[in-house]
Amino acid sequence: MNKLDVRGMACPLPVVQVKRALESAQGELHVLLDDGAPRENVKRFAQGRGYQVHEEQLEDGFAFTITGPGVTAAREAAPAPAAAAGPTVMLIGSDRMGDGPEELGRLLMKNFIMTLMDLSELPDRIFFVNTGVLLAAEGSEVVETLNELGNRGVEVLSCGICLDFFKKKETLAAGGVTNMFTIAETMLAARSVVRL
Questions:
Q1: Which DSSP letter does residue 84 get?
Q2: Assuming Cys at both sites, which of 15, 25, 48, 95 could form a disulfide with 134, CB separation 3.0 to 4.6 Å?
Q3: Cα 79–82–84 angle (5° rounding)?
C-alpha cells in the first residue's frame, strides 16, 4: 500500500500531492490529512476521477484509503476532440485574486499560478497587465514558477506600459515585455481567453 501524509499542508498542496501519488501508485493509496478543506477537496478530487474513498477519523485528522483504477485511464485512451484553431490565452490583470482581503487575494493568486504546474494542459500565453506585472518582477513569490512555465513552452509576457508605470521594467524576472497591440491581437485570435 502506498502512503502519503499531507497533514499541515495548505491548499492546494494536499490535492496536488494526491494527484501525483495516484498517477504513479499501484493499488491502494493511504492518505493522512487534516479535516476541513483538505478532507473535502481530496475526497471530491478522487471521487470525481472514479476512485473509491474510504475514510476513517483519527485523533489528529483523517485517513483516506483510495482504491480503484479510476476513469482517468479510459479518458486518456479516448481520442481527444479536435482542437479549435488559435492559442489558449490567460490574461492576469492583478497581483491578487478576488475582491476580498488583500492578503487572501495574494495567497490565492500565488496558489493558482503554482497549481498551473500540475495541470496537463497549459495556456499557450500568459499576459500580465496592471498590477499583474508585479507577479513577474523581482521579489515575487511566483517568479520561479513562471520561469518553469516558460521552460514548458508557455509564453510569459508583461505589458510594457504597466512595467513602466510601476517602475518595474528593469526588475522583470520572468518572461518578456509586450505591448497592447500584441495583447489585443492575440486575444482576438485566441481559441479561448481566461481572464483573472
A1: P
A2: 95
A3: 155
Distance CA 151, CA 148 (A): 5
Residue 158 has pLDDT above 60, yes or no: yes
φ, ψ for residue 70, nearest 5 deg:
70, 180
pLDDT tops 60 at residue 76: no
The partner residues of 52 in beta bridges, in order of sequence, read 67
In sequence order, which residues have a C-beta less than 8 Å from that of residue 95 and are 6 or more positions away? 106, 109, 131, 132, 134, 135, 140
| CB crowding 149-172: b at 16 or more within 10 Å, else e | bbeeebbbbbbbebbeeeebbeeb
Nearest to 19 by CA among 56, 54, 37, 44: 44
Banded pLDDT at 40 (limits 50, 70, 90): confident
Among 138, 127, 125, which Cα is nearest to 167's?
138
Find where cell 494526491 sits: 18
Amino acid at 30: H
Residue with cell 492546494: 12
- Residue pair 188/89 in contact by the 8 Å Cβ criterion: no
- The model's pTM is 0.72
Least Cα distance to 175 among 108, 125, 117 occurs for: 125
Does the N-terminal peptide bond of residue 12 adopt cis geometry, omega within 30 degrees of 0? yes
